[in-house]
């Protein structure tokens, strides 16, 4: 399979709105977010404050199962190694596929985990496991990584979304939706599946920016008057939801890559994946805790080598560009970049010159944010069939991610009377790759 390049009232209560609001503004009432509020997020002082207080993640989700043999763990010369050579990286003794020359020059920034054994080769349940770090229980749906990071790293006063996903291809989309599980819809993602731009966040063309701001001010005033002497969870929740919606409306420019200099856009390239990763960088720079960018069509049961020859260089270019961009902006210590699939691909080559599902010995990478750079964890045998040392599973991978973010993997959420830790009991982070 080849890759495919998403109050009304009575007259007696009428008000001179502009005069009324002008008086309130003079009295020092708080103003709701206006449609240009997020421009300030690009200011160095704000960006610096964010970097001191908030960790963020960009997850590059390689949907369908990218082959470790054509990326991070090549086996040239083995009967099932395939046609591609390995090349030396900037980490002594570490070689990766020749399809990734740009990342070969940047492996000193990155941790490579080669010993994943996740024991699940089914697309749907494996994708859920690799997004949650464990399998759901019959009566308990766990939150995915994005929802946990949104819950732990999101800020109550944030005017940007807490969790955004891009998945604009059709393959595998239904198997990998964002899911807040028992954390509830407050931490569910903004999912972009048809374009790079959120639907329904633009104000109507007939409403000016001033009208939009003044309507917010009027609502705030009347709401404060109504709320005096009243205490209600429903009212507080409605107010919080309203302010977040206004903030999301104010964040629309973050999704517009024309706001970036042309030279930056050219660096990422014109592909949909490149543009979405650029938007992801814009979002985390503005304080979004978690962004997942899905890139599908890795499910190479047929024509594996042609598929990877087309897709791996794109991953190599976009990932290297993102790492460089984050580094130049001083963000790499605070933004974690992860590459992850639901599983890898078989060392064996089938009759269609493809590789099938394989969860016994595959690879992932983590870059930045509390992870030891230039480290390698795990080793597979010469044919890539099994992990021969330093095996890791989904739980230990997630415990490592949480620890690198400064989160205690043993922290408990309370679901009814039951305490639920971030990872299953007895699961530990991979200390060898933590700074």
TrEMBL record:
Q: Which Gene3D superfamilies match?
A: Alkaline Phosphatase, subunit A
Any idea what this protein is called?
A: DUF1501 domain-containing protein
What SUPFAM superfamilies does its record include? Alkaline phosphatase-like
One of the Pfam families matching this protein, by short name: DUF1501
* Stored InterPro entries: Alkaline_phosphatase_core_sf, DUF1501, TAT_signal, TAT_signal_bac_arc
């Amino acid at each position: 399979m080849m890759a495919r390049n998403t109050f009304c009232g009575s007259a007696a209560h009428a008000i001179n709105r502009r005069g009324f609001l002008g008086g309130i503004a003079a009295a020092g009432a708080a103003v709701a977010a206006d449609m240009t509020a997020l421009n300030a997020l690009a200011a160095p002082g704000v960006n610096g404050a964010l970097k001191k207080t908030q960790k963020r993640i960009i997850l590059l989700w390689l949907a369908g199962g990218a082959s470790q043999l054509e990326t991070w763990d090549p086996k040239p010369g083995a009967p099932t190694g395939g046609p591609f050579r390995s090349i030396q990286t900037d980490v002594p003794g570490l070689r990766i596929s020749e399809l990734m020359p740009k990342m070969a020059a940047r492996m000193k920034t990155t941790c490579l985990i080669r010993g994943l054994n996740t024991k699940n080769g089914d697309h749907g349940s494996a994708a859920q496991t690799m997004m949650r770090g464990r399998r759901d229980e019959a009566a308990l749906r766990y939150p995915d990584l994005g929802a946990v990071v949104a819950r732990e790293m999101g800020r109550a006063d944030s005017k940007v979304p807490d969790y955004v996903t891009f998945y604009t291809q059709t393959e595998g989309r239904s198997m990998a939706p964002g899911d807040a599980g028992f954390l509830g819809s407050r931490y569910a993602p903004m999912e972009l599946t048809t374009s790079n731009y959120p639907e329904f966040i633009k104000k109507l063309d007939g409403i000016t920016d001033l009208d939009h701001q003044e309507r917010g001010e009027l609502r705030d005033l009347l709401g404060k008057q109504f709320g005096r002497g009243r205490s209600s969870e429903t009212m507080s929740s409605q107010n919080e939801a309203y302010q977040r919606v206004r903030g999301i409306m104010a964040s629309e420019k973050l999704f517009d890559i024309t706001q970036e200099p042309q030279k930056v856009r050219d660096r990422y390239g014109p592909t949909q994946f490149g543009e979405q990763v650029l938007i992801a960088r814009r979002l985390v720079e503005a304080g979004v805790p978690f962004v997942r960018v899905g890139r599908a069509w890795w499910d190479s049961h047929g024509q594996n080598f042609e598929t990877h020859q087309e897709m791996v260089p794109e991953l190599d270019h976009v990932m290297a560009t993102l790492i460089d961009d984050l580094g130049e902006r001083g963000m790499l210590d605070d933004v974690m970049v992860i590459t992850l699939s639901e599983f890898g691909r078989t060392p064996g080559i089938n009759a269609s010159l493809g590789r099938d599902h394989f969860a016994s010995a595959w690879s992932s990478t983590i870059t930045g944010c509390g992870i030891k750079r230039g480290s390698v964890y795990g080793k597979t045998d010469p044919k890539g069939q099994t992990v021969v040392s330093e095996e890791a599973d989904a739980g230990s991978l997630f415990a490592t991610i949480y620890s690198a973010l400064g989160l205690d993997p043993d922290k408990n959420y309370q679901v009814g009377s039951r305490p639920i830790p971030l990872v299953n009991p007895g699961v530990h982070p991979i200390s060898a790759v933590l700074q």
